[in-house]
Amino acid sequence: MKNARQAVAAWLDHFVGNARTYSTYRREAERLLLWSEINRKISLLRLTQDDLGAYARFLSNPQPVEVWVTNNRLRAARNNPNWRPFAGTLSPSSIRQSLAVLSRMFSWLTANAYLAANPMPTATGRSYSSPS
User: How far apart are the first and last CA of the chain?
Assistant: First the structure.
């Protein structure tokens, strides 16, 4: 089996021709990859529905702020030590969009045998409630 970064890169390869979609999907996948490695200390490919519920809650309040949120709302280059994955807290609609992108990613990873089952609750009829 390939590692999570290789699996995500394979999924993202399908969107290279559409710069906006690619950028959005890469951002969401990278955030989840980092969160799974830093906060859960497991591979994205080992996340469960419970982990993804915790991630959905995390999106509404990324903590600790000094690790996750840029302190001046200006995006630093990725190679800059001041780079952070978030420019601020996400709105409920942004959280829904993030989870929708990740649901698509997990569906593709499952269909292409990177995962045995899709851990996103929407795949089983459950859904996460967005913070209000």
Answer: 39
